[in-house]
Amino acid sequence: MFNFVWTFNMFYHIIEKEKAISEFRRVLKKNGILAFDDWVITEKISNDEHMLLKYDWSSTDWITDLNLFKVLENNGFNIERVKDYSRVGRVLMKRYFVEVFESYFRPKIVSLDEDWGNSMADHFKNAIERTIYLYETRKMKYLQFIANKK
How many domains does the chain divide into? Predict the structure, then answer.
């Protein structure tokens, strides 16, 4: 049994999210802490946007913020100290991403693979730009929270 479980920027890759939360509960001691730091979607996302998100980030499925909280509560967690850092995507990423990507990351990606580098860089750039759009339209959130096992 553990005092602490931390999921950091990987939960969106988990196929069976409800089963994972149940497993978090199983391995935590009473009053153990679950720390969550990851992207979630909101109810506002369209089916087409959801499909693109799955494609862009090689994830099987995404969970909405409301469904995540419901599943946690149903598994005996008290959620506290929720912080939404989506503003980073809406403001900072929007302001700086293209310039930094084109000046620093694209050249590095292209140098690693002369044949496919630009194609890979374009795909990554498009994925980030679509993600920024989802932040801007409040269809995605970046959440950090602490949940205690009852």
Answer: 1
